[in-house]
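Inputs:
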Amino acid sequence: MNKLKQLLSDDHWIVPFLKFQKAGLFWSIFLSLLTTLAAGALMFVSGYLISRAAQRPDNILLIYVPIVLTRGFGIARPVFRYTQRLVSHNWVLRVVSQARKRLYSSMASQASSIRGRMQTGEVLSLLADDLDRLQNLYLRTLFPLGAGILLYIFVSLAFGIVNWLFMIWWFLVLAIILIVIPAISFVINRPRVHHQKKLQNKLYTDATDAVLGLQDWVLSGRQNDLVAYQGQVMSELADTKNKEMRFGWWRDFTIQALVLILVITTLLWAGNQFSDNHVMVNYIAAFTLAIFPLVDSFIGVNQGVSEASFYEDSIERLNDLPLPTVMSDSVSHIHNATINFKNVTFKYDEQLIIDQLNLTIHSGEKIALLGRSGAGKTTLLKLLSGDIEPNNGTVTIDDQPTINLQQQLSHIVAVLDQQGYLFNTTILNNVRMGNVDATDEQVKAAIKQAGLQALIESLPDQYETQMQEAGARFSGGEQQRFALARILLQDAPIVILDEPTVSLDPKTESDVLTQIFTVLHDRTIIWVTHHLTGIDHVDHVYFLESGNFTLADTPEKLKKTSPRFQQLLAMDDY
Amino acid sequence: MIDKRLFQLNGIIKTLIGLVLMTGLQGLSILAQGIFLARAIVGFWEGQSLSGIGIDIISFAVAFLMRQLLIVLKNQYMSHFADRAVETYRVQLLSKYIEIGPSVIAKTGTGTAVTTLGAGLDNVKNYFQLLLIKVFDLSIIPWLILIYIFYLKWEQGLFLLLIFPVVIIFFIILGLAAQSKADAEFANFKNLNNRFVDALRGLPTLKQLGLADSYSDEIYNISEDYRKTTMRTLRVAITSTFALDFFTTLSIAVVAVFLGFDLLDGKMALLPALSILILAPEYFLPLRNFSDDYHATLNGKNALTDVMDILGKPSVKNRHKLLLDQWRADSELELAQVSYGYEDKLVLKNIDIHIKGYQKIAIVGESGSGKSTLLNILGGFLQPNTGEIKLNGQDLPHLMQSDWQKQFFYMPQQPYIFHDTLRGNIKFYAQHATDKGIQLAVVQAGLTQLVSELPNGLDTIIGEGGRQLSGGQAQRVSLARMLLDDQRQVLLFDEPTAHLDIETEYDLKQTMAPILDSHLVFFATHRLHWLDQMDYVIVLRNGEIVEQGLPQNLLDKPDSQLNILRHELGGRQ
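Outputs:
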């Protein structure tokens, strides 16, 4: 419960959006109330109508009003319902638009220009799904709950006009149906829902283990283990779900039993209250029949509330996102692209990642950076781009700390990484993202420089060809060349190459590297690479291990003096 | 409405008979509930004494509770059945996966295979549980009620009977219109959705280009376009529910008004009229319930189709033809004129190989030359289209032989790491390994440092959702698996070091080289430095063997295919 309170007090994804566009919210709930009322009124009026008609009044005009009302409510209910669904969906989608923008800004404010090892794409898709799930929280839980409470107040007050003692009775029974039972089912189902979600995740990992690890299951001769292993979680999940469903069925049964009590007491009360009046006696049928459609909507509230725990971790994940920050506008100018790491130390979780490292890269110099995974290459790049600040020492470009250069970083440092991301728009638009002010001619010149002229000419739509999702239309080598064209246009003095050829075959790799170093000959280049192919392109080679350089010199010298380098080179140069 | 495939399930007929009985009983309870409520109301209306009405009220209560109880019972009954059905499918599905093997699954998409096994079966369960109850409700309850209404007043019965198909026809017609509208907007939807995910995924790139901040308005615009498109579709889509709603509610109103007129004219009494009014909503209720869950059942139906599609795939035959107890120094394997490919495009052409004993064979070539395919044929993961295979003189149609697959250990480019402890991962192939054996394998495979870094050592959970291993570490885990299971005399390697950084590759090579001795080794790679560890080489180009022989001999010949390949791969000139 405390956790729940915490969740609500930290919330900046649900409550703020409820305040947004109050009119739409009001109509969503109000129309939902009207829908139920119309359904109740239909049965109320028709009950009255036929009772009154059975008394065979002399004048048809005496039942004229109920006749009209019956038809009216018969039409009103579907119309209200239709309108309610449109209004509420529209409202929710407006909220989603706002929420998406907010999600994006939040992610953007903490995004790094250096792609880490971890695949960020999945995390992002997860968050996008969370937003979609919030739609259901509004539509299935919050709106019915709001409408249910309004209906509760309305019905109780309506009874109050007729008989206030009986109003208290209704007030109590409805409180059990609308407040006590949902609260109980929320509390009881919450751990079940959590357990169910855990099992569902496990089922997913197990299914992944079964399919992607299939070769190992087969070759190890453990086929039977696979079948048994997978079945455990499946049956446990079915068990949990069944418990949850059984609870729901019996809960609905209990509610129906309470409805039965309401119906019988109302019948008895109405029979007693109206029996001595020739006209009032017709209200017996009216009151009794109206109960059924009214309580139907309370059952919906119960379902919605027990489902509410399903959204908890989505909300938690969203609330854990940082609030979008506004960066300072201080702009400093760079005249000389000399990079300086002075005695830099960086720790993460008490673990030393970079250890008193010194490095100077002069303007126009080209260096290669090698090291095993985990040696600190990514951290070094993040320090350089000012994404993180060193615990000790300074990282500067032209004597200005990189942390202060965030705002104009894209004018100083360009990055070409493993998967130079191509957006789902035309070729021309993609490349132009390097410099949005570039003319068509400049963009085309950059594409030509990157060696893509022949490819473009072979396409029916030429420069207007759509990239398709994540550039999937083009081969790995072509994608990297498009990213290269973008960087040419960006025209930053420093270029970080973060394993740009790691996924290419050897022949393409060598071609792309030559192209890169040719067209970027006048820039400062920091090239992170996983092997020594093309090492002669650089002026200096640095081997990083445990946060410092174990080997650093020109390739020529290393070839002559370092046995370690010779061993490694022999593998690449066989 | 009901899938024919449902009737192939075990015990379905018995289950359905039970369901019919319960639904019939429920229908009768609904009738009784309506009739006794009407009697009680009329009793009060006529001013009868409570003692006379009491029996009606009690009967109403009993019928009411009976009906609600039957709903619970039916749900439990069908959920039990659905669980059993899904369990049957699960076992069949996994056996099928095992039979057709990883290569075929990879071709149809591992994503689909995972989803079918996980969420897919869950949907199938909902389908069985929901659909059958709703279909039987719809095909029994309204008609019981209708018969009674006919008995009371045939005009009303006829009206309700005629309106039923009208409701369904409108529901279907408008549903189809909504579907075509949704289809028309589908591309638009997909595009808008992709653009949002696209922007999120490309965020580091946007940041690199200095565009990250200005893109948030673009996001908002995309979302608003999405909203407008959705609302356009929705306006049409909800009309089919609206039609259903409209006709059923209006029918009740019409029935009430006509009953009113009949009563006014003295053509009928209050009791039958009130009974009809109470029963009219019940008559439509099963139809409403059915349409509410219509979409949920569609998902289930598609999931069932996926399951059935996979179960319908042909299995590989003759998987136990080979009799082989162990690969020995004098064992022989021969491939003659083996080809593999799809239709007119052959990936492997006329492969001839003759192998004896513990040879160490490098399979080299550029990417796309057929190295992996050849290795897959040798491992039995793919079956050749044509050609002959002989093992120790036994003719075999393919190498997917249980006795052969027991002989070898396969190390892929990216070994799969299970969501399990490091220990569980290492002893995957040797379940009964001792702690001592595991420790030794850890040391030999060079995993000592990793174990010391992990918070719980060997008992740390790794793999998907746990701690992720680097490529080199995953290879070492695979090596440890291999070392622990020392019964296997044949080793298959598919580019095990191609994507590693050069220092890790160097370290790993030092670990691997000594293990290769006294094994039959197939080593597919384009990293030619491995030739030093091999005693035979097969050079592939465009799916054909262009050269095979002793590595040193071929290297010494300046114009050998091996040397040509070396130059192409950028080796020393």
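Remarks. Chain A has 19 helices and ten strands. Chain A has a mean pLDDT of 82.
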